Amino acid sequence: MKNHSLTGIAAKLLYNGLIYRYKKITGNPMKPQAISLEITHRCIAKCIMCNIWRIPKEEPELSIDEWLKFLSDDFLSDVRELDITGGEPFLLDEIDRLFSGITTLSRKNLKKMKSVAVTTNGFLTDRVIEKTEKILRDFSKAGLDLVMVCALDAIGEVHEKIRNVKDAFNRVNSTIDKLCELRGRYPNLIIGIKTTILPLNINELEDISKYTGERGLFTIMSPCIITSGRYLNKDNKKELQFSNEDKNKMIRFFSGGEFRWSFHAESLIKYLETGVMKKPCTCGFNYFF
């Protein structure tokens, strides 16, 4: 049975690879299989690497009904993974209705969807836990996984300096601990952390890795991106740029045993060494933000 399963997976990967190459050669896109939605620009934090919080409150955002209408389009019928981000998604009063609508769509329009990920800074602990448990109950019935990703840039005071929020580490740590308790009751809950690597936290990576290992969390650890688009942070360029020493520290970290078999880490090391990213990207092919 196990060999049969592995053969099926290998055949599916081969098929997907052939389709990808054919579409790429002919210049034809596929239907999206993964999408990320920035549902709000509102945020509690004032992070040094992100100026989304500077967007005026009066700047219009899509309503929950508009997001659900968008997600019901037949063009998205192949979506497997949905990523909800912001700003801080849990600031939305109607976030419950968004997820209950997504649950309904998973039975009708989004039948191939397997998981929904939510990125949070974890500062609104009680609200995050209350909403998450409600979402998990609905998702359990629909056969969906909920992936909770908490932003964590250091263990202790450095996290507070990066996020510019008082008691930042203790607040997100409390949220993570309570999410781990929920995971004991809901096997469809997957928990991880997202670390934005900066000159300020370059010496914190080992401690973050140890913290996640002790709690059984997955990690997303990537150098910050300087852009006039998504993070609106080009004005912060001077304090965000890495020195050669910083780059060497990242190379040593990602070369460690924990990342030995990670394709992402291997590609990142080559990028830090050469300045060229050769990892294939499906953005605009079967993924969009």
Percent range of helical residues: 40-55%
Assembly category: single chain
Strand content: 5-15%
- Report the order of strands and helices: HEHEHEHEHHEHEHHHE
Give the overall shape: globular
Tell me the strand order in the biggest sheet: 6-5-4-3-2-1-7
Please provide the count of β strands.
7
pLDDT < 50 stretches = none
Largest sheet, if any? 7 strands, parallel
- Distance between the terminal alpha carbons, to the nearest Å? 38 Å
Q: Helix segment count?
A: 10
Q: Radius of gyration, Cα only, in angstroms?
A: 20 Å
By secondary-structure content and strand pairing, the structural class works out as: alpha/beta
Mean pLDDT: 91
Characterize the structure shown.
- By secondary structure, the protein is of the alpha/beta class.
- The relative contact order is 0.12.
- Helices cover 44% and strands 14% of the residues.
Topology:
Blueprint: H1 2-26, E1 34-38, H2 64-71, E2 81-85, H3 95-108, E3 115-120, H4 125-142, E4 145-151, H5 157-163, H6 168-185, E5 189-197, H7 205-215, E6 218-223, H8 237-240, H9 244-254, H10 263-274, E7 287-288
Parallel strand pairs: 1-2, 1-7, 2-3, 3-4, 4-5, 5-6
Helix pairs in contact: 2-3, 3-4, 4-6, 9-10
Provide a short characterization of the protein structure.
By secondary structure, the protein is α/β, with parallel strands linked by helices.
